[in-house]
Amino acid sequence: MIEIPAKGSKAAKVAKGQAIKIINVHGHQVVDTWAFNAADISEFLSNEHMRQKLNSIFPKIGEPLFTNKRRPILIFEEDTSPGVHDTVMAACDVYRYEQLGCTEYHENCTDNLHAALDELDLESAETPSPLNLWMNIPIGPNGSCGWVEPVSKPGDYVVLRAVLDAVVVMSACPQDLIPINAGNPVEAFFEILD
């Protein structure tokens, strides 16, 4: 297993047919997750396109995750958690933390994404909206959104199988000012499966 450090990120190449298992070791850590087509990173997992294809804001076991070209990139193969993940919220960034009162730099998922890509000598012109694994954003009937702790438990994991050669980036979300990580960002882990 490979560690995604607390408040940090990792990127992994996942060949077509391989899978990536992302593990929420402590149970309360959100992992912002992106997937890019390894042959053309201007094609990426897109929540906006995925929600339209799935007619749902939650991916479900056995369903594909779609790109901005409306093609499957990953299959949501396994999920041991209650299945509460977020496809609505953007990745945190320096502007979010400024709005929350930070006067100094705060680690954030946007910078984590680009740092992880940089380690593979890759660059994305934008920050796509991530699949926020285990992030619990309840949507009320009037459209209101909540920010609450994950309902996952220690050791929960998801398995995402690549339909295309992909680059998957994971950020152990650094958010410690609202309760989405139970106020305590920690490490997560992943492994590549054949």
How would you briefly describe this protein structure?
With 194 residues, this protein is α+β, with helices and mostly antiparallel strands. Helix content is 13%, strand content 31%.
What secondary-structure arrangement, pairings included, does this model have?
Blueprint: E1 2-4, E2 9-14, E3 19-24, E4 31-37, E5 40-44, H1 47-54, E6 64-66, E7 72-79, H2 94-99, H3 109-119, E8 131-133, E9 156-162, E10 166-172, E11 188-193
Question: Can you offer a commentary on this structure?
Answer:
This protein has 194 residues and is of the alpha+beta class. It has one domain. The chain has 3 helices and 11 strands. Strands 1-11-3-9-7-6 form a 6-stranded antiparallel β-sheet. Strands 2, 4, 5, 8 and 10 form a 5-stranded antiparallel β-sheet that branches. Strand 4 and strand 5 form a beta hairpin. It is globular. The mean pLDDT is 97.
